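Hypothesis: this fold can be encoded by more than one sequence.
Test: take the structure tokens below, design a sequence, compare later.
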């Protein structure tokens, strides 16, 4: 008889986006003429940058000739892309990362979800609340948690992000081995300073822990004092893995390309207490279970680092940041407490009422869809998330409607 992995039975069905869809559909049925504005889901809305499209086309044309055809490529990614990443995203910022420490993949979702496979099932895991659900659910699947009770999984060390700590969690009061951090943060839009990030790096070094740092929104940072990469912090090469994606900077959510940085110095320990480098283990896992990102997509990603591509991405991200600024100003003028909207496409708003009640209010009175904060964890209760991923015109109309509905 075949038994299933019972840890899957502990997973809480995520009704978040289907519940949102149901409420939106019911409202639309009752108000067929209302044009609903969606500031909910975290997907980009604007076209791929021209430089990426041109490189993509060119690579497809190469594939159409026997001479230019590419079959299986290196699982870790083509050297042209890994070298461009190391040079422009790290070395240019003074972070000492080399091309052979970069693993190109089809998404930061998969990478942040898969990385925990390298560690023992009794590793103690620290996960932010509110959170991008992938970190938590993949650890549940792996059996690193107990049951779900009172809104939380047993055995997880939750890192509360609240108004009191300005949405940057404090160090855990109990020992942990694996730490997930995400800055600029999804869903809160909060950022972390170099000094704050250094306390985490120092903690991980002290505890022989590892930080999994998700920097998917790095391109939204405009404040030069904020770290774009954890490797801008001294000592991070020994205790941090970083995840990046072309989804939010270059609009690759439907094109799929991302990468993970695993420095040579990162280690975990075997049962004898010997240091085991993580790089060869991730390399082994990646080569065994993954067969590379398509050649045209890697060429399109490489174009992100051309002069033309860089300018286009700055404009693209700047467009969303301008939307975020408009949202932040409007909610501030309405008297709401919020965080984010700067150096981030997300605005996290304290509604001072149940998240779903606030969601219904905005939908029914303004025809605007947000994401209820409670869907991201216990600490999200009472909040909603608004996203800047829409046209400027729609964002402006949405904020005007919210103003009229709540005034
Ligand atoms: C969007 C997002 C990613 C990127 O995911 P991809 O699989 O690369 O599209 C990673 N982490 C967070 C927190 C995100 O919001």
């Amino acid at each position: 008889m075949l038994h299933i992995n019972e840890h899957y039975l502990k997973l809480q069905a995520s009704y978040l986006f289907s519940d949102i869809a149901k409420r939106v559909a019911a409202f639309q049925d009752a108000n067929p003429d209302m044009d609903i504005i969606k500031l909910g889901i975290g997907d980009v809305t604007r076209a791929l940058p021209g430089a990426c499209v041109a490189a993509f086309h060119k690579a497809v044309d190469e594939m159409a000739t026997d001479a230019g055809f590419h079959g299986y490529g290196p699982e870790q990614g083509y050297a042209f892309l890994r070298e461009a990443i190391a040079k422009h995203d790290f070395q240019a910022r003074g972070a000492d990362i080399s091309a052979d420490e970069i693993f190109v993949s089809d998404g930061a979702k998969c990478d942040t979800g898969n990385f925990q496979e390298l560690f023992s099932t009794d590793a103690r895991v620290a996960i932010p609340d509110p959170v991008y659900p992938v970190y938590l659910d993949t650890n549940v699947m792996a059996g690193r948690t107990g049951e779900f009770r009172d809104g939380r999984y047993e055995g997880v060390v939750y890192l509360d992000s609240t108004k009191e700590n300005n949405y940057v969690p404090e160090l855990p009061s109990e020992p942990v081995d694996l730490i997930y951090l995400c800055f600029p943060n999804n869903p809160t839009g909060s950022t972390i300073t170099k000094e704050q990030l250094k306390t985490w790096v120092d903690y991980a070094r002290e505890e022989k822990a590892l930080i999994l740092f998700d920097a998917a929104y790095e391109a939204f940072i405009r404040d030069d004092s904020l770290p774009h990469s954890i490797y801008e912090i001294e000592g991070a090469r020994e205790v941090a893995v970083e995840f990046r994606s072309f989804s939010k900077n270059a609009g690759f959510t439907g094109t799929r390309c991302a990468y993970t940085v695993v420095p040579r110095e990162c280690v975990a320990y075997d049962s004898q207490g010997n240091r085991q480098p993580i790089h060869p283990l991730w390399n082994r896992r990646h080569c065994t279970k993954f067969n590379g990102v398509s050649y045209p997509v890697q060429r399109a990603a490489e174009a992100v680092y051309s002069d033309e591509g860089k300018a286009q991405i700055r404009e693209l991200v700047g467009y969303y940041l301008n939307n975020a600024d408009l949202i932040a100003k409007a909610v501030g003028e309405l008297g709401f407490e919020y965080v984010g909207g700067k150096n981030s496409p997300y605005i996290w708003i304290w509604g001072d009422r149940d998240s779903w009640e606030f969601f219904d209010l905005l939908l029914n009175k303004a025809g605007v869809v947000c994401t209820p904060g409670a869907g991201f964890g216990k600490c999200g209760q009472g909040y909603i998330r608004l996203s800047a991923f829409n046209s400027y015109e729609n964002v402006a109309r949405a904020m005007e409607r919210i103003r009229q509905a709540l005034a």
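Residues 42, 107-109, 132, 182, 186, 214, 216, 245, 247-248, 253, 258 surround pyridoxal-5'-phosphate (CB under 6 Å). Residues 339 and 348 are 5 Å apart (CA to CA).
Hypothesis status: open.
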